[in-house]
Write a structure and sequence with these properties.
The protein contains 9 helices and 2 strands; from the N terminus they run αααααβααααβ. It has a two-stranded antiparallel sheet with strand order 1-2.
Amino acid sequence: MRRAVREILAFLGETFRRCSLHAIDTQSAALAFYSLFALAPLLFVILSIAGRYLAEGQARREIIRQLQGVMGPETGTAVAALLVKATGPGPGAGSLGVAGVVLLVLGATAVFIQLQEALNRVWEVAPRPGSVLHSLLKKRLVSFGLVLIVGFLLFVSLVLSASLMALTDLLSADIPLRVALVTFANEILSFLVLAVLLGLIYRVLPDANLEWKDVGLGAVVTSLLFSVGKWLIGLYLARTTAAAQFGVAGSLVVVLLWVYYESFILLLGAELTAVYSSRYRQRPVTPAPGATSAGTLPARNPG
């Protein structure tokens, strides 16, 4: 027992030492900043696509319900308020427009470039110096491809979840066990989709040779930490009235708080994955082709 406790403490100590060394708090802040630019247009695109298969009102309700399930009731409601504000009646509402599409592409790819930079710091690798333009185009293309994959998985999750909730509505209230089972299946679906997304991010983005065995456990643990974080933030927000007092501005603050916290959890999960790989997998992680070992990298904004 004592040996197990010492091992756990050593594991956590190494993880938090690396977190401090790689400055994941400032990396999380940068990631949260770029995420805000992509959040609104991304939700609008998902709403537009889902509206082709579901009634617009049903699509919006399902997106809001999904947001509340992932972010917690308070944060999900705050994002929903921003979404309704952006898509409700009014001048310019209801159309993303060219500027919105450009903002979506630039914002979403910037998020993944910043995330790639942070994950490279975690694994202590970096791209080899070369053509700045070639490197920038490669990063943008890889990031945009990952954006499309993530968007597709989120859309599939949305449709499946909507189907499960429709099944729940069809079930009689006299058989609550079936309703509970369908609800539980929906929660498991959300958890699995999140774990797959995290595994994909951990596996693809860093300039390192990683296997699914390296990142699988970390993705599952990080998904659990997301759930705990959602509950903790919901607990905190339930005791504050910032969003109610300041309207849309308050909602934006709530969303920023959630995005920063979850960005921190995502990078913490990456550090846990790196420590697990080095201590228990006993397989040295090598730089990918076109990359080099870099040690502790200085912070840098995505280009």
